[in-house]
Design brief:
37% of the residues lie in helices and 24% in strands. It is of the alpha+beta class. β11 and β12 form a beta hairpin.
C-alpha cells in the first residue's frame, strides 16, 4: 500500500504546564464530557516536556495501526505506553495521518506523577500539542486560535482537565451561560483576568509523592451514584459565575473563600461515594489548620486548594511571597515528604521546544 507521506520525517516537542482547578470538575459523561464547568489557573513550573519523533512507514506498512515506542523519564514504561497507544488509536479519526507513521514519544515531568498535581493534564496536553503541530506541518492551515482549540479538544480526550492547560493564565472548560464561547468540547481562555491574579503564586506542598490509591478516572466514575451529585453540579455552576467576577475584579478574599470551599467539597464527594475513599492524609489536615490560623493571626491573604490527592496548593499574591514563604519554611516543611515544596505561579502557557 502506498504511503501518502512517503519519506516524511521530523521531530516536534512541547512543554505544557499542569493547572490547578479553582472550581473543580468532578463527574463526567459520554466521551470525556464534564458534568459541570470548571476554571483553573495555568501553572508555570509544574510541567511535562514531550518530544515526538515521527517517520513515514515503509511501503506496505502504511496503514497497519499505531507503531509506537514510548519512554518516560528516559526509560521504557509499559503501563504508560499501553495507555498512550490506546489513546492514539482512539484519536485516528481526528488525526488520520497517525497509522502512516512510526512514532517515538519521550516524556518527562518536573514533578512526581500520579500524586494529585494533575500530571495527566500536563502530559496529555503536551502530547496533544505535539500531535496537532505534526498535523499542521503536514496539512497547514490552522490559525493560532484554531490550533489551540484543536489541541485543547484532543487533550480533553486524553484527560479532561488537560484541555485547560493549553491556555495562559486561566481557562474555563464546560458550557456556562456566563462565559462567552465556552464549550464541553474544549476549554477557552478566561478573559479580563485582573493583574493581581496574573502573577499569583502557588506553592505546592508535597505531603506524599506516592501514587494515589484511587485514580481520578475511577473517582469521576463514582460520581454517577453519588447522592449529592446533582446539587454539586448546581453549586459548581454558581461558584463559577461568582469566581469569574472575582477574578476580573481582583477580589482576593471572596476568591479565596470559594477556592477553599471547592477543595473541601471535592474531597467530601470522595468520602460520600460508594465505595467511599479518602485521599487526604493527616498532614494534609494539619497544614490546612495551620494555614487558617496564619491567615487569621497575620491578616495575610493565603488560601489553600487541593486536587484529587493529599498535596496542598497554597495560593497567595506575589506581594506577600516573602512572608508566606517564610511561614512555609518555619511551620509547614516538617509536614511535607522530605521537606519538598514546588514553588510555582500562574504562567503564560505551553512553550514549543522543538520543531
Amino acid at each position: 500500500m502506498s504511503n501518502p507521506f512517503k519519506n516524511i520525517q521530523g521531530e516536534v516537542g512541547w512543554r505544557s504546564p499542569s493547572n490547578i482547578a479553582l472550581v473543580k470538575y468532578w463527574g463526567k459523561y459520554g466521551n470525556q464530557m464534564p458534568q459541570n464547568s470548571s476554571v483553573s489557573f495555568t501553572l508555570r513550573n509544574a510541567f511535562t516536556e514531550t518530544i515526538v519523533k515521527y517517520a513515514a512507514k515503509p511501503e506496505g506498512k502504511a496503514a497497519s495501526g499505531i507503531d509506537l515506542s514510548f519512554f518516560f523519564e528516559g526509560s521504557t514504561n509499559p503501563k504508560f505506553e499501553d495507555k498512550i497507544r490506546k489513546f492514539l488509536d482512539s484519536i485516528i479519526p481526528h488525526f488520520p495521518f497517525l497509522p502512516h507513521f512510526t512514532l517515538e514519544v519521550s516524556s518527562h515531568n518536573s514533578f512526581p506523577h500520579s500524586t494529585g498535581i494533575a500530571s495527566s493534564a500536563s502530559s496529555m496536553s503536551a502530547l496533544a500539542l505535539c500531535l496537532t503541530a505534526i498535523e499542521n506541518s503536514l496539512d497547514g492551515g490552522l490559525h493560532p486560535a484554531q490550533f489551540l482549540e484543536k489541541a485543547s479538544m484532543i487533550s480533553r480526550l486524553g484527560s479532561g482537565s488537560a484541555c485547560r492547560s493549553v491556555y495562559p493564565y486561566a481557562a474555563v472548560w464546560g458550557k456556562h451561560h456566563d462565559v462567552a464561547f465556552s464549550s464541553n468540547e474544549y476549554a477557552v481562555p478566561l478573559d479580563q483576568l485582573h493583574p493581581v491574579f496574573q502573577s499569583f503564586k502557588d506553592a505546592i506542598l508535597i505531603v506524599s509523592a506516592d501514587e494515589k490509591s484511587v485514580s481520578s478516572r475511577a473517582g469521576h466514575a463514582l460520581m454517577e451514584g453519588n447522592p449529592f451529585a446533582e446539587s454539586r453540579y448546581k453549586q459548581a455552576s454558581t461558584n463559577l459565575s461568582r469566581i469569574a467576577e472575582y477574578l476580573k475584579e481582583g477580589d482576593i478574599q471572596n476568591f479565596g473563600e470559594i477556592v477553599e470551599s471547592e477543595a473541601l467539597t471535592l474531597h467530601a464527594l470522595m468520602m460520600c461515594s460508594t465505595p467511599s475513599y479518602m485521599l487526604m492524609l493527616p498532614n494534609t489536615l494539619k497544614i490546612i489548620e495551620l494555614i487558617k490560623s496564619f491567615r487569621s493571626e497575620k491578616g495575610v491573604p493565603l488560601y489553600f486548594t487541593l486536587d484529587a490527592g493529599p498535596n496542598v496548593h497554597l495560593l497567595y499574591p506575589a506581594e506577600n511571597a516573602a512572608e508566606v514563604e517564610n511561614f512555609i519554611r518555619q511551620e509547614l516543611l516538617s509536614y511535607c515528604e522530605n521537606g519538598r515544596v514546588i514553588y510555582d505561579e500562574v504562567g503564560s502557557g505551553p512553550i514549543k521546544i522543538k520543531g
